[in-house]
């Protein structure tokens, strides 16, 4: 197997066998690498269709599909670290709205994107679905490709 390029030596998870996920979410889990195209605005999208967390009151599991869209500035998020970060919510008791906003806050702390949107579509509990969108900057317009989803088609 080829060894890792020295410019990526700061990445702690990629290319290494890791036996456990972090016990709790932390922006420090998110690793970054230099954006090779910082002069260009382009969107990166991560989809996590099997996100899990726990209800803060009952401790029962909550299931969701979480999508993260962002326009990087100088740094991009490394995907294996994102996988570990999202998995750390498995034992985290929190309301759905708090989780989506926390993910956005941690993404901003880790890579300081130009724009970002975190979308969480949580499975029904008690017959009610919860969908949460958190955007950065907070007054940012949601990009058209996210505004029109299969569950929310164009008018």
Plain-language structure description:
This protein has helices at 79-87, 96-111, 144-147, and strands at 32-34, 44-54, 61-71, 75-77, 115-125, 128-136. The chain is an alpha+beta fold and 155 residues long. The protein has a domain at 35-138: 2-Layer Sandwich (GTP Cyclohydrolase I, domain 2). The strands form two sheets. A four-stranded antiparallel sheet has the order 2-3-5-6, covered by helices on one side. A hairpin with a 2-residue loop joins β5 and β6. The mean pLDDT is 86.
Describe what is shown at a glance:
The protein has helices spanning 79-87, 96-111, 144-147; strands at 32-34, 44-54, 61-71, 75-77, 115-125, 128-136. The chain is α+β, with helices and mostly antiparallel strands.
């Amino acid at each position: 197997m080829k060894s890792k390029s020295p410019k990526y030596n700061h990445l702690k998870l990629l290319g290494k066998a890791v036996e456990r996920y972090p016990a709790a979410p932390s922006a420090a889990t998110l690793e970054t690498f230099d954006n090779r195209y910082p002069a260009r605005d382009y969107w990166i999208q991560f989809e996590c269709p099997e996100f899990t967390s726990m209800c803060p009151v009952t401790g029962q599991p909550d299931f969701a599909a979480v999508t993260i869209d962002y326009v990087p500035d100088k740094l991009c998020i490394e995907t294996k670290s994102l996988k570990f970060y999202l998995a750390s919510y498995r034992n985290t008791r929190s309301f759905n709205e708090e989780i989506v906003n926390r993910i956005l806050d941690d993404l901003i702390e880790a890579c300081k994107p130009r724009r970002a949107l975190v979308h969480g579509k949580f499975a029904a509990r008690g017959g009610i679905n919860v969908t949460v969108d958190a955007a950065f900057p907070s007054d940012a317009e949601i990009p058209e490709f996210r505004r029109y989803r299969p569950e929310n088609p164009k008018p």
